[in-house]
Fold:
Amino acid sequence: MKAYLSRRYRLSAAHRLHSPAYSDAKNREVYGKCNNPHGHGHNYIVEVTFSGPVDAATGMVVNLADVDGFMRREIVDRFDHQNLNQQAIFEHLVPTTENLCREIHRIISAGFKHAKLERVRIEETSNNFFEISE
Ligand code: NI
Structure:
């Protein structure tokens, strides 16, 4: 039997969608107003889901304090109130929310060993959201 635990975090960040693979005109065509040179911001909601057995001793899938500590340190502190385009991981990667989702999934998978990461879901606006799962 597998149990799931999900938790949400909020972070605000700016980005500009611009691909070095395209000309300026093509970038404007592909990304529209999201290609505005001055960038724009989002209040992202990042949801993470972990799975595993319910530990017989603690009664938990994973300790929320461990999840919160990791997420605060590695995700929220890193991205909150930042310009995503200036982050090292987006130096050669367009900071779309698909890519942000993928990078957050990669960071958690690589660094958090207390439970299995099932899914990262990011709400960019109330109308669009993105998910990465293995
Ligand atoms: Ni945007």
